[in-house]
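Writing this down once: the sequence line spells out the residues, with the fold written below as integer tokens. This is how one looks:
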Amino acid sequence: MEDLFAAWHSVNKTSSIHAGLLHERQHPVLKQIRKQMIIELVGFILFLTAYYDFFDGARKPLYANILLVSAMLTVIAVNIIGYVFTKQGVPGENVRELLERHLAKLQTYAVVAVLARALMMLSVVVFFKGGTIVVILFIGMLVLLVRLWVKRIRRIKAVYNAFEEPVE
């Protein structure tokens, strides 16, 4: 019986270590995501505060200004939502169920993130009257972004498929 108690206490210690990793400042992946998000947020906010004067926003059509600002704000909102999504735990009875729910959320988020970036790129093309080279560059960037998300999702699917169905 004492062996069972010893095993239980070691599990609790391990669980507390894992729970500690879920804190934002200790988890290495969350640190990287937070750092990237802050850099992007600062860049977008600096751009939005300066674009009207630096890039003659007053001379551009109103629809181009509205499209640019709303697209940038959308990307900022999607970044924040993605960070919150990453920090949240996913409830589940077992690892397979947890991965299944996480995968469904991740696929939805990936579509929203790609669409937000596409909207931002479209707004930049409209605002700056981008030429063919800029459009081709943005299409290439979107293709790379889609491939990145597909790769991430495939990795999680592979882990999900590696788990057998739970025995009941």
